[in-house]
């Protein structure tokens, strides 16, 4: 098997609101769209996103009334601090401020109008012998 693209499909109440959020704040482009549907892409290696309107018949009946919840779309990026500053200045809805975890993950989160949580992550190089690095390496 050769995976050529990764796509995350999200069911939301307002497709247009999520499209605007991903275009404005995260640089996604609309690849195709129709009533209650949008396919978003970026020119880099980020996952593509499909947005489906709640209730659409393309979804299995048991999923039609569900909405994206309980997941985090994590995008590993470079220049995280500058990106956080840019988004804050643009008025993006940052819902978790920039922080650094002991295991070397630097991150912040923003949330789209439909409640989709997007986490931007940058990994900090940990030195061998660092206790957080040793614990994560041992777990691998």
Automatic annotation (TrEMBL):
Gene3D superfamilies: 2,3-Dihydroxybiphenyl 1,2-Dioxygenase, domain 1
Domain (VOC): residue spans on this chain: 4-123
Protein name: VOC family protein
PROSITE patterns membership: VOC
InterPro entries xref list: Glyas_Bleomycin-R_OHBP_Dase, Glyas_Fos-R_dOase_dom, VOC_core
Pfam families referenced in this protein's UniProt entry, alphabetically: Glyoxalase
């Amino acid at each position: 098997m050769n995976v050529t693209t990764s796509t995350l499909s999200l069911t939301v109440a307002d497709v247009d609101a999520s499209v605007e959020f991903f275009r404005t704040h995260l640089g996604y482009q609309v690849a195709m769209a129709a009533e209650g549907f949008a396919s978003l892409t970026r020119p880099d290696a980020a996952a593509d996103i499909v947005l489906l309107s709640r209730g659409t018949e393309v979804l299995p009946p048991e999923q039609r009334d569900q909405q994206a919840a309980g997941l985090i779309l994590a995008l590993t990026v470079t220049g995280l601090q500058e990106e956080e500053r840019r988004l804050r200045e643009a008025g993006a809805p940052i819902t978790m401020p920039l922080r650094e975890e002991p295991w070397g993950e630097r991150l912040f989160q923003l949330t789209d109008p439909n409640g989709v949580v997007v986490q931007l992550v940058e990994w900090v190089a940990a030195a061998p012998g660092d206790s957080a690095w040793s614990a994560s390496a041992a777990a691998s």
